Amino acid sequence: MRAPRLAAAAAALALMLTGCTAGGDDGTAGTVRLRFQSLAWQKESVDANKQLVAEWNAAHPDIQVDYVQGSWDSVHDQLLTSFEGGEAPDVIHDASDDLADFAYGGYLADLRGLLPERLRADIPARSWETTTFGDGIYGVPFLQEPRVIMANKKILESSGVRIPTPEQPWTWTEFRRVTKDLTTAMGKGKHAIAWPLKEPVSVSLNLGLSAGGQLFHRGPDGRVTIRFTDADSVVPGTVHDQVNTDGSASRSTLGTGGSDTLPGFFGGKYAMVPLGFSYRQQITQQAPKGFEWIVLPAPAGPEGLAQGVSPQTLSIAEDSPHKKEAARFLDFLLQPANMVRLARGDWMLPTGTTALADPSLHTAKDGWATGAAVAAHLRSAPAQSVRGYPEWKDKVATPAFQEFYSGAIDVGELRKRLVKDGNRVLSRYQR
Amino acid sequence: MSVTRTSRPARLGQYLALLAYLVFLAFPFLWLVSTAFKPARELGSLHPTWIPEDPTLDNFRQAFDEQPLLRAAGNSLLAALAAALIAVLVATPMAYAIARHRSRLSTAATGWVVVSQAFPFVLVIIPLFLVLKNLHLINSLAGLVMVYVVWALPFALWMLVGYVRAVPAELEEAAAVDGAGRLRVLVSVTAPLLTPGIVATALFAFITAWNEFFFALVLLKTPEKQTLPVVLTHFLGAEGAADLGPLAAAAFLATLPSLVIFAIIQKRITGGMLAGAVKS
Predict the structure, then answer these.
(1) Do A23-138+312-350 and A147-309+385-428 share a fold?
(2) A40 CA: distance to closest CA in chain B (Å)
(3) CB-based contact (8 Å) between B140 and chain A?
(4) Cβ-Cβ contacts under 8 Å, A10 against chain B
(5) What are the residue ranges spanned by the domains of chain A?
(6) Which residue intervals define the domain ABC transmembrane type-1 in the entry (chain B) (predicted)?
C-alpha cells in the first residue's frame, strides 16, 4: 500500500515543482524590463531603494525595473557565476574593491559613453579613480564610508584632553599621547581605545594614507610593487605601541569585528572605538539611554585627514541588452536628492558634490557634520586596482599584521613579509 | 554475552561528560533564542543575560515586516522535502545493489561517489549553472531540487549501503527458501528492516537542503523563489555588520522545522534501530 502512495506523492511533487519553473522575462510586449540587484540591507536603506524603484516605474511605464535584493555575503561568487552563465542582473550594486576582476574580465560595461555629463561632473575625479580600470569606467561610485572614531563624550570631556575637530585633528603622535593619558585617568581594566582588527589590512592601509603611506607603487610600465617606507609604518606602529608598550589599547579586541566592541564601548570599558561611519546606526539603536557619544575624525599626518575608501558602486552588465535604459535608471537613482536619500538610508556619505552639500548631511546630530567634513579628504584605497591584492591580503598581509599588532613580530619582520612575500604574490598576476 | 559493569564514579564521569556535551550542543541554540527576544539596547550590553530583562517580540515583527520569511520558508520546505524524497527513492535501490552484489566495480563506484563529496561548491557551480540554464531550470525550484538531490546522493548512498549491509542476507535467503519471490522478499523482509536507515537518510537529505545557501543564492534570481537561508543573509551587511535582533528571530524560526521533523521521526529511527538489533 505504501509504495503506490509514495509514488503518487512523488508525482504530485514533481508536478508542483514543474509548475514552479520561472516564467518569461517580460510580461508586456515593448516594455523593457531591467533587473536591479541591490545590496542594501538596513531597513531605511532597503525602503529608500524600493521607493526610488517604485517612483521610476510609475514614471516610466516603458522601462520597468525589478528590484532584487542581493547579499553582501558571497556577492562576488554569485555575480561571477551569473556573469559566466549570462544571467547577470542589468544593474549591479557592489563595492569598488570587488570590481577589478569583473572589469578586467569583460563582464561590466564601460560606462564612459553611457553616463550623462551631469553625473560625470558631479562626482569628484578621486572617486571615479576607484572604478577606473585601464581606460574604462566600470561603475558609478555613489556612497562612501570613512573610518572615524566613536568616542564616549563624558569620558573625553571629563579627562580634559583636547577634543579634535576636522579642522584641528589629532596628529598620530598626539593621538598616542592622548590615549596613554586617558587610559591612566580611566583606571585599571579600562582602555582609551579598542581597535577592532579582525580585518587589519584595510584599516592599516586606508588610514596609512594620512601619514603618506602608500605601500603599492605603480611603475611606468604599469607593474605594481610593494615598498614599506617609514611613512607606511606610522599607523601600524602607533597601534602596535598602544597595545604592546602603552597598554592604552585593548589587546582583547584585536581579533574582533566592529560590532563586538560596542558593548565594551557602551559599558565605559573603552573611551573610543575606530569604526566605519555607518556604525552610527548600530550605536543609536543599541546604546543605553543617556549614553552620550561623539564622532571624531581619525588622526591626521603629513597628508592631513586623507584616508582610503572603497565606495559602493552601481555598474551595468556588459551582457545587458538594455544598457542605455539601465544608464537612464542610474541617472535617476543618482540624482542629488535621491543620492541623499540613499546615503541617509545607509548612514553613509554620498560621493556626489551636490548631494554632499545637502544641509541634512551637515548636522551635528549623530556626527553627520564630522563625516561630511572628512569626505573631502577621501581617496581611492591604496590597493584598489592592484590585481592579486585579495591573495596578498589573505595569505600574506592579514597574518603579518595580526602578528605585528599582537606583538609576536617586530616591524622588521612585518616589512620583510609584506614586501618579500607580497611581491612574490603580485608578480604571479603581472607576468 | 557478558555485560561489563561500570563503577559508580566512572558512571558519574560518563554522565557528567554527556551533560557537558549536551550543554555544548545546546548553547548556540539557547543563545539564539535569548537574543531573538532581546530589545536592541540589551544586545549592546556589556553584561548580557540569559533571560532577557525586557523581553520583546519586536525582532520577530521587524523580521516579518522586512523580509518575506513565510514565502521563503515555504520554498525551502518544498525544495527540502522534494530533495529528501527523491534522494531516498534513487539511493535505496542503488545502495541495495552495491551492498548485495559486491564486485570491484561496485567498490570503485562507491569510492568515486564518496570522493565526489570532496568537490568544493565553487568548482562545480559554473558548469552546473550552464547545464541548468540550457535546461531552462535557472530560477526554478525544480532545478534547485535536482542540484540538492545530486549533492545529497553520494552521502545518502554511503549511509544506506551501511544500513543494507546490516540486514543479514540470511533473512532474505530464508524467505526465499520459504517460497517468497524477489519482490516479496524486498517488500516484506528487507524494507521494514531498512526503514530506520531510510528515515535517517531522508532526514540527512532534508537538513542538507534546508540549510543550503550557496546554490540557492546563485540559481534563484527572483525574490519570489528565494529560500530561507538566502533571505536570512539580507539581515547581514558588509564586513560582518548585522541586524542582530531580527536576524536571531528569523534564524530561530528557521531552525524550528528541522527540530519538529526530527522530533516526529526520531522515535521511528530509534524504534527501528532497536527492532533491527533484536534480529542479530
Answers:
(1) yes
(2) 8
(3) yes
(4) 85-86, 89
(5) 23-138+312-350, 147-309+385-428
(6) 73-265
Looking at beta carbons, which residues of chain A come within 8 Å of B243? 41-43
Cell of A103: 572589469
Q: What is the mean pLDDT of chain A?
A: 91
Give, as one character, the DSSP assignment of residue A278.
G
Residue type, A51: Q
Q: Which three cell numbers stand for residue A371?
A: 563625516
**Nearest C-alpha in B relative to A47:** B66
Residues of chain B with Cβ-Cβ distance to A80 below 8 Å are 126
Q: Which residue among A269, A279, A285 places its CB closest to the CB of B46? A: A269
DSSP A407-425: TSS-HHHHHHIIIIIHHHH
**Is A203 buried (19+), middle (13-18) or exposed (0-12) by CB count in 10 A?**
buried
Q: Which of A42, A85, A269 minimises the CB distance to B237?
A: A42
| Spatial distance between the Cα atoms of A329 and A47, rounded to a whole number of angstroms | 17
Architecture (CATH level 2) of domain A23-138+312-350? 3-Layer(aba) Sandwich (3.40)
CB A324 within 8 A of CB A395: no
By three-state DSSP, how is residue B32 classified? helix
Distances (CA, A) of A80 to A108, A317, A318, B155: 11, 11, 13, 28
The tens digit of pLDDT for each residue in B205-257 reads 999 999 999 999 999 988 899 999 999 999 988 877 888 999 999 999 999 98
Any chain B CB within 8 A of the CB of A269? yes
Domain A147-309+385-428: give its CATH architecture. Answer: 3-Layer(aba) Sandwich (3.40)
Measure the CA–CA gap between A213 and A206, rounded to whole angstroms: 9
CB B9 within 8 A of CB B24: no
Q: What is the arithmetic mean of pLDDT over B24-53?
A: 91
Q: Which pLDDT score is estimated for A29?
A: 64
Taken as a whole, chain B contains a residue count of 280
Whether the pLDDT of residue A388 is over 90: the answer is: no
The DSSP secondary structure of A118-180, one letter per residue, reads: HHHHHS-HHHHGGGEETTEE--EEEEE--EEEEEEHHHHHHHTPPPP-SSSPPBHHHHHHHHH
Closest Cβ opposite residue B234 in set A20, A69, A78? A69
Convert the pLDDT of each residue in A55-110 to its tens digit. 999 999 999 999 999 988 789 889 999 998 888 999 999 999 889 889 989 999 99
Contact A87, B133 (CB under 8 A): yes
